[in-house]
Amino acid sequence: MMVEAGYETVAREIIKCTRCPLHESAIRRVIGKGSCHPKVFFIGEAPGDNENKTGIPFSGRAGKQLDKMIEYMGLSKEDWMVTNTVKCHPPGNRKPKINEIECCKPFLLSQIILLNPRIIILLGNTAERSFCPGRKLEWGVPVEHEGRTILKLYHPAALIYNRSKIETQNAFIDRNRGLWS
Ligand code: SF4
């Protein structure tokens, strides 16, 4: 029903949602950032402190790292969109719990259906648990999942100050450029 009503309705539903306890720690709802017609749809983990204040996903240090990654991938701003598994900030920057991820999943799935990206990049294990529960993907190895190509890469926060992980991530990207080029 949300999908039929369109993206703006999904956003309005997110803003007023109280389905899980995370709404109690939310200052702003963090819905998404990027193109309305993305080739690549990134899924992160959860809004951090900075995102909670700005309402913009990946607007802190991890966001700067994501920008570098997107630049290395050669994507233009029309090519991508990013969101998280949950739209509200977990208190104390903890990981979102499974029940919170499940409560928020209809919003994530509605975004994917409405924006219809060809490729979904899961940024870390929490995104994998949300989008492909029960599947264990290899880092940097694409698979088909429900009609889309899925690729699991490191979360940008894991790359901050970790030169060797950046090199490994860049090798994953180099190996998979054909997916989005
Ligand atoms: S995290 Fe998602 S399900 Fe939970 S209150 Fe926020 S919008 Fe609703």
UniProtKB/TrEMBL annotation:
The broad enzyme category this protein falls into is hydrolase
Instruction: List UniProt keywords, sorted A-Z.
Output: 4Fe-4S, DNA damage, DNA repair, Hydrolase, Iron, Iron-sulfur, Metal-binding
Q: Superkingdom of this entry's organism?
A: Archaea
Q: What is its EC number?
A: 3.2.2.27
A single Gene Ontology MF term assigned here is: uracil DNA N-glycosylase activity
Ranges for domain Uracil-DNA glycosylase-like come to: 31-173
- Which Pfam families would you find in this protein's record? UDG
- List the InterPro entries hit by this protein, alphabetically: UDG_Type-4/5, Ura-DNA_glyco_family4, Uracil-DNA_glycosylase-like, Uracil-DNA_glycosylase-like_sf
Reactions catalysed, semicolon-separated, are: Hydrolyzes single-stranded DNA or mismatched double-stranded DNA and polynucleotides, releasing free uracil
Q: Which family does it belong to?
A: Belongs to the uracil-DNA glycosylase (UDG) superfamily. Type 4 (UDGa) family.
Q: What name is this protein filed under? A: Type-4 uracil-DNA glycosylase
Please tell me the species this chain comes from: Methanosarcina flavescens
